[in-house]
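Good morning,

Both structures are done.
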Amino acid sequence: MNKQMYWRANIRYLLILLSIWFAVSYGAGILFVDQLNNLRIGGFKLGFWFAQQGSIYVFVILIFVYVRLMNKLDKKHDLDEK
């Protein structure tokens, strides 16, 4: 097992997933709010929805994605629970 390769893959996953979360929460909730407010979800403007709830949903989804990725990485490096 190469611990350095494992750690690099872990950090790469974290950076990618946190970048996605940043893009969704900052981009959709702040930068593109005016363009997104032209659309509505459940009667609420889409920009408002992303700022209030959308980024939280994306974060929760990314947690599940991270768990799945780490389980695969653990198996690859023979660190999974047996």
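Second structure follows.
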Amino acid sequence: MRGENNLQHTARDSTAAQCHVLIVDDDPVCLEEYAELLESLGYPCQQAPDAATALRMICNDYRIGIVLTDLLMPEMDGLTLLDELSNRFMATRPLLAIVVTGQTSLDIAISAMRSNAIDFLEKPVSLQSLSASLRRASARWTRLAAVFQLQALAQTTGGGASDFSQGRAPAAGAKPTIEELQNFASQMMKDRQIRSKFFDAQILNGPAWDILIDLAAAGLQGRAVPTSSACASTQAPFSTALRHVNQLVEANLVKRTVDPGDKRRTLLELEPEALEQMTRYLASSWEMHSVRRR
């Protein structure tokens, strides 16, 4: 039972690793509209009515990884917020900004990009354009988070890869020694060997494996995952990730169903046998890492 509880805790950490989107807009109607769109796409989100509130929330919550902000706001406008994000946070944590505005011009777009905004959306924002922008931002955030977390893992002996997902900043420390890097590489190889005991080698690499991990974490909590969210968990373009989803469905590892609450959306979950295999793999991997920590 103790091992099962630890495994479920690991699954919750993995699921929480999808970053939160912070919506910043002084218009309550826009806040609600964007929140509904994000929830329909499967993105966890929070709301801030102004830039100052947004900065406080970002400072206190490391789960926030994408900021969707309006430009025209009283007191502190969106461009000032972008400068604050760039100067205060982006060098030390994975954080990306998307700009939404009804006042489009080349000068504004250039100013936003100079302040490290990665996308520029024009009001009214369509579900399609928002979805595409968030997929790109999520893929980039995943890559950035991996870099920051690998650095934190290398610099600490007790640090975990879930620091960002739990709302904590990673601890700083010395650079890893050659021996520590060798041990880390050996650990990665052993983990790959464990995977090969449960699954065919063709799905051990790339988006397919990322999707299996994402669905396993959700499956251990008894829930399904929106297709868009599962695709966003990979570092591949949406069309590539979707192709891997279809291959997993054809291989009878993943089941696709229609969301009963929204017929426009499909949900993914592991087939019972696949969930059992992933559970055994996670238990074996967790045991290996636990032995190493003792």
